[in-house]
Write a structure and sequence with these properties.
Blueprint: H1 15-23, H2 31-65, H3 69-72, H4 77-110, H5 118-121, H6 130-137, H7 140-166, H8 168-174, H9 179-219, H10 224-235, H11 238-259, E1 265-268, E2 273-278, E3 288-294, H12 295-307, E4 311-314, H13 316-325, H14 337-353
Parallel strand pairs: 1-4
Antiparallel strand pairs: 1-2, 2-3
């Protein structure tokens, strides 16, 4: 078949294609969304930690700038004060910086999830190819990124100008007041300015996030032939087939076990085989096998039968014949009608007799051989 172009890839990517792309580090990402999360976290973090941060900042400035006469003649004093100021500032900013670090990791997690791919870290010569670099710059995606950058600049600059315009009178008066009163006020205004500028990024993120998701899906779209080839490759793997067969057998066994309580009798070997039968007079032409099994499965069938009051009847020849000659959900074969009818007649008599059931004669298991006729 001829090589298919990107225009022919109209089908949505399959889960396998998405998983392969994730292994290569190709997941949807939005820088604007990550920036928004970090800015909002910084704004709210400064709002929560701001009062304590401003008090510590004031103490740090006073301790660093207020030098008494004895320190003026100590040559090592400036270095000690500088080291102490750096240490205090680090501990002072540690909670806020930790919050920003965590939020910078949460942003990518919310959009696309974690993806560590050694393949994405491998060096590629095309990344340093100047011709391909120019092609990326002047491509349609490069044009979109340029327009986005201009829109972001215009929007954020407009919000910043309007915010400063509203604060013009306050900025003029700020230099007149004392430092102890002005510093907390500056901190509060800074936090509100940060939150206002961050809110401008919400509009940008609302546009960029859907675009990045759409663009990621568009790049991974497949042609119908690619989907067919993938299905052939996947279905042809022995380990995949074995896995599906295991799942099917497990599901069938679970459904079978759920039907054991509905059985009228469980005919056993008594240890190696167990076959559960159900018969409804007037609705069924013949008894139906609802469950069967060997060894451990047979033991589980017997256990469930005891828990739900289903009669257990030991008839080794009949149990082996039922196990070998019937499938789950099928009626028993004609040559087993007489033997099974005797067992069911005994079971129904037990059910209706109640406390007088001890007087009902039990069929001889040795006479229930499937080849035996009345």
């Amino acid at each position: 078949m001829a090589e298919e172009t990107a225009q022919e890839r109209t089908e949505a990517p399959t889960p396998k294609r998405l998983e392969d792309a994730r292994k290569k580090g190709q997941v949807p990402r939005s820088r604007d969304f990550n920036t928004l999360v970090s800015l909002m976290a910084g704004g709210f973090g400064a709002m929560i930690l701001g009062p304590a941060l401003m008090r510590d900042t004031q103490k740090l400035l006073q301790g660093s700038l207020d030098l008494h006469r004895g320190l003026a003649f100590d040559e090592t004093a400036p270095l000690r004060l500088f080291d102490a100021a750096i240490s205090d500032a680090t501990w002072m900013l540690a909670p806020l910086l930790t919050m920003l670090l965590l939020c910078s990791l949460i942003g990518p997690l919310l959009l696309g999830g974690w993806s560590f791919s050694p393949q994405a870290l491998a060096p590629k010569l095309e990344r340093i190819d100047p011709i391909k670099g120019l092609q990326r710059i002047f491509s349609a995606k490069g044009l979109v990124e340029l327009i986005k950058a201009l829109l972001k600049f215009v929007l954020v600059a407009l919000v910043a100008v309007l915010t400063l315009w509203q604060m013009a009178d306050w900025l003029v008066v700020l230099g007149i007041g004392p430092l102890q009163q002005s510093l907390p006020e500056v901190g509060r205004k800074f936090v509100w300015c940060l939150l206002i500028l961050s809110s401008a990024m919400i509009l940008i993120a609302l546009i960029d996030v859907p675009f990045q998701l759409w663009d990621h899906t568009r790049k991974l779209k497949m042609s119908r032939q690619e989907i067919k080839d993938e299905m052939k490759e996947t279905d042809g793997r022995p380990e995949v087939k074995s896995h599906f067969r295991g799942l099917q057998q497990q599901a069938a066994q679970q459904r079978m076990m759920q039907d054991v309580p509905t059985a009228d009798v469980v005919i056993t070997n008594p240890t190696h085989y167990a076959v559960a039968l159900r018969y409804e007079d007037g609705k069924m032409n013949a008894p139906v096998v609802v469950a069967k099994g060997r060894d451990l499965v047979a033991a589980r069938i017997r256990e469930l039968a005891r828990e739900h009051g289903v009669v257990l009847f030991s008839a080794p020849p009949l149990a082996r014949a039922l196990y070998a000659g019937t499938d789950i959900g099928q009626e028993i074969p004609a040559n087993l009608f007489v033997a099974v009818a005797r067992v069911l007649a005994y079971v129904f008599q037990l059910r209706h007799a109640g406390s007088l059931a001890s007087g009902i004669p039990m069929p001889d298991p040795d006479l229930l051989h499937p080849d035996q006729e009345d």
